[in-house]
Amino acid sequence: MSREQANELQDRAHEAEVSGDYPKALELQTELATVLPTLVANGEPRSDEGRRDKERLEATRERIEILRNFVQKRKGPAPKPLPSKATVAKEMREPPSGTVLLSKVETDHSAPLIVASGLPNQPDPNQVGSTYITPLLSTSIPDTVYHVYKEIEQRYNGMAIFLYIKGEDKVTYYTLSALKRFNYQISEMRMSRAAEYGEDCVVVDIDPINPKGYSAGEFLSAHLISAGVGREHNAAKNGRLGRSMTFRTTATSTPITETLDGSVERKEWWPRRFTYGNRRFVWRREALEGLFEVEKEWSHPDDTSEAILDQTHGRSLLTSVPKLARKKLCTINIVGGLDQQFREYLLASHLAPQIIMTHGHTDM
Fold first, then answer.
1. How far apart are CA 93 and CA 8, in angstroms?
2. Where are the alpha helices (DSSP H) in 129-219?
3. Domain positions in the chain
4. What is the rounded CA–CA span in Å between residue 361 and residue 239?
5. How many CB atoms lie within 10 A of CB 18?
6. How many Cα atoms sit within 13 Å of 116 on the Cβ side?
7. Cα distance between residue 139 and residue 316, in whole Å
8. What does R_g of the chain's alpha carbons equal in angstroms?
């Protein structure tokens, strides 16, 4: 079976699970588990494609165990489907109560904002206005919680970095990966759903920078960091130097660019601004990084400053708590009521700078 046929079989399995046909989903996942070992055996182990085949095989076996326990024992609640194209389609057709479908507007900028009703004491869009989404998000919906773990794989030309994003059930939902080549900056990251390791749900392109501490002559190309005295000292501060990022997602009709305030010489990662679904948002860092919806923005009165001033809604839409552990990176809380594709974008937007700050400018 080809990799494309395996992808199709996997999609059918998740569609069956989302529709509630758990015996059929188990049958299809079991069939998938019989063909994936051949793809793994025939692939290049250290290639990105080979790595994805191995991860998909592990995820398939894990899913079979979950489905088998439910189908055979029928104990406890039905298993929660992994994020996939099927869960996106169902959310758009039948959004859970209180969900704000901002990604529908991102896909079609002329589309109206849809808020699924059905919650007690839910804000009335006609009263609070539909210009902003924050007032429409009910505090009665629990946060979506993710646990992020990091793994490093040494490669002949550098290292591959993998962030495994798990749900509260400790099942892997997403993988965010990046390749850090020796002496080169990280230029791209890719996030895939565990249900669809054969394709990406978010691709991040990172603009290169001229690292601090090196002269223009030492900066050999847009991506190359030249060797020289002070490399280790400059590695840490270069990682903290912010840069623009461009995101392509399954919801975006056009790429989303996140921009930074200030001049090139003093840019940091915060504040970082972007537009999604015709709404403006800003990442800020005080004690921890937080995401806020912007009500209005204006230029700093000092003509020599490139800073932007703003007024935002007070509720942070995402908070992240770092963990001092060997493998666990952080725990992320995203407020309830945001749609799946927007949450996926926010995960990539929040985690990509962390990879660069840690690994973007070292020899390894």
1. 22
2. none
3. 3-73, 144-359
4. 6
5. 20
6. 18
7. 12
8. 22
* 3-state SS class at 294: strand
pLDDT by 10s per residue, the chain, length 364: 788 889 899 999 999 999 999 999 999 999 999 999 998 888 777 677 788 888 889 999 999 999 999 999 877 788 999 999 999 999 999 999 999 999 999 999 888 888 888 777 666 655 544 589 999 999 999 999 999 999 998 888 889 999 999 999 999 999 999 999 888 889 999 999 999 987 899 999 999 887 654 444 334 333 343 333 344 445 556 777 888 999 999 988 789 999 988 654 556 899 999 999 999 999 998 778 899 999 999 887 776 667 788 999 999 999 999 988 789 999 999 999 999 999 999 999 999 999 998 886 554 4
- In one-letter notation, the amino acid at residue 203 is V
This prediction has a pTM of 0.90
At residue 138, the 3 state secondary structure works out as: coil
Question: Virtual CA dihedral for 348, 311, 237, 344, nearest 10 degrees?
Answer: 0
Sign of the C-alpha dihedral, residues 232, 237, 242, 243? Answer: negative
Hey, which CATH number is domain 3-73, 3.30.460, 1.10.150, 1.25.40, 1.20.58?
1.20.58
Q: Which residues contact 105 (CB under 8 A, 6 or more apart)?
A: 111, 112, 113, 277, 278
Bin 291: left if φ > 0, else alpha if -120 < ψ < 50, else beta.
Answer: beta
Q: What are phi and psi of 180, to 5 degrees?
A: -105, 105
Cα separation of 247 and 269, whole Å? 16
- Which DSSP state fits 115? B
DSSP-derived 3-state class of residue 276? strand
Token duo for residue 219: 């900066």
